Amino acid sequence: MVKVQMCSLILHLRSYLDLLRIAACLAVQSVFIFPAKMKKEADKKHKVFAVYEGDHLTMLNAYNGFLENNKSSKFCHSHFLNFRSLSRAVDVRAQVFP
Predict the structure, then answer these.
(1) C-alpha–C-alpha distance, residues 37 and 71, integer Å
(2) H-helix or E-strand containing 57?
(3) Cα–Cα distance between 33 and 16 in angstroms, integer?
């Protein structure tokens, strides 16, 4: 039986590459950073990527933002994203489908 959330996710994907990107993000540590003393600020920055459809698409938006900003560590720092995890996710995705 297929869950409704997964059906919704599949319907919102633009291509199979999005599915590969999500899978790559799931294969690494969290792409989001939540510093204890700056949790509210991190939550605010993370909301830029958030979508109603769920966490997988939110993670995809963060991944795509990372790519759109030339895999910048400064972008990651300013948005409380894990640069190492996103870099690793890019590598994983490239290994699956070069």
Answers:
(1) 26
(2) helix 55-68
(3) 27
pTM of the model: 0.84
Place of tokens 């909301």: 47
| Model confidence band, residue 2 (pLDDT cutoffs 50, 70, 90) | very low
- Token digits for 5? 């959330």
What is the 3-class SS of 6-40, one letter each residue? HHHHHHHCCCHHHHHHHHHHHCCCCCECCCHHHHH
How crowded is residue 54: how many other Cβ atoms within 10 Å of its Cβ? 15
Note the pLDDT of residue 16: 76
